[in-house]
Every structure is written in C-alpha cells, then in structure tokens.
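FAQ: What does the model actually see?

It sees only this:
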Amino acid sequence: MEYRGSECVAIIAGASGAIGSVTVRALLEEKISVVLAALPDPSLDVLAREARERGVRCLVVPTDITKRGEIDALVAKTLAEFGRIDVLINAAGIGSSPSMCDSSDADLENVVAVNLLGPARLMHAVLPAMKAQGRGSIVNVGSIAGEAGVMGIYSGSKFGLRGLTDSVRREVRSHGIEVTLIQPGFVRSPMNPALGDSVPGPEVVADAIVASLRRPKRKHVVPAVYRVPVFIAGAFPALIDLIFGNARIQERLNRDARAERETTSA
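And it is asked to produce this:
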C-alpha cells in the first residue's frame, strides 16, 4: 500500500540527524504529515518551518529514545494531534569504535540503547495503533555492518536490529503492516568524518526509505555497490574472517577512529 499525502502521518526518530533530516525533507515532498522526534536541536525548528512553508502539517516532539517514558509521550502526542500513525522511521543511530577494546562499558550500553532498544521500544509503542488501523509501515535503518561483523558493538547492535526487523515483520504481516530494513554502506555524515565527500550523501538512504513506502521490500542495501560485498559476507563468512582477522587490516580499520578520538580528547 502506498503512503503519500496529508492523510498519511509519519514519525521520524532521529529527525535531526544526517539521514533523518534529509528523510524528513523527502517526506515533505510527498506532502506526508511529519512528527519530528530527536534530542532537542535547532535543526528541528528549521525543519518545522520548512514544513509550514510547504503547507505540510508538522509536530515537533523532542524525544530521547533511550527513555521509554519519552517514547510513550511521543506516541500519545502524535495520536492526540493526528489521530493515527501510518509510518514509523527509525533513523536514529550512533557509531562505535571498530575495536571492542577501545569501547568503555558506557559506550557499549549507549550503542545498544540507541541502535537496538530504541527501535524496539518505538515499534512496541506504535504497533497497537497500527494494528487497530489495519495498516502501517515501519522502516528501520540498519547498516551493512549488520551483515559483516567488523565494527565492534556497532555491528552487534545492527545485527540485532536485522534479526528484530525480520521477527517483527513476520509477527505483524497478517495485520497489514509492512516492515523494511534499509542497510546503508558508508554515507556522508558526522559518523564518517574521515571519508569526507568521497562517499554518497544521505539522500541515497532517504530515497530508499521513500521507495520502501511505495513498494515495501524485506531489505534494501544502498548504495547498490555494497550488494556484492553483502552477498559475499553471507555466503563466505570464513573469507571475511580471513580478511578482517589480519592484524594489518585491523590496524587500518581502527586507525582513523583512534586518531579522531585523540583529537576530540585533546
């Protein structure tokens, strides 16, 4: 079922982020009413102003998705304002060091809280409304790091999100609810500062999200160039062990992350 127009209401978690903000703008192009959920940030007001200028209804709800009470408040405010929830886009996420040994216990907990428990709680909160409507669409933004475990706890959280997405899709299929996983490779964002302009912009992810609302898929790997490595990782896991088990590869993989951390702490 296609989702577009003002009768459609979408919650975007992580609306202030690189992927979240361009996704909001893509939904505004479709005239979809938007609910902006993210930690307090001036960019939310900018997006809300753009929505008003386009004549699209918009609700800003500052939300910490690691806190269940704030998630429940987000859903309650959305239903009070619009009376329905058609789409949930889980675009919030944080990265981690590729090396487990470089992560503190607080880092481990925070990555799982944002990347896995956050989407789980958001889905748990919106599903009763979607089931009552007999329709809905959930789009989770994962990562190719959820197919090939090479990024420490970040990979662990994205592997978990992949499994959770499959499980929820099967659970709610008979209720007319579609659940899609978008798996980006490296895109231009604050999470990948060392890559600069050498990688595609977050628009490639936003386009995939909007496309999944028009024609749902189980999962969508973007950019397309990553589909071959993802296939290889699934078909030949021992090869990935051999490549990324090499000490030189591990050193190179962690070099930029360590240099950035030293710069930040200086």
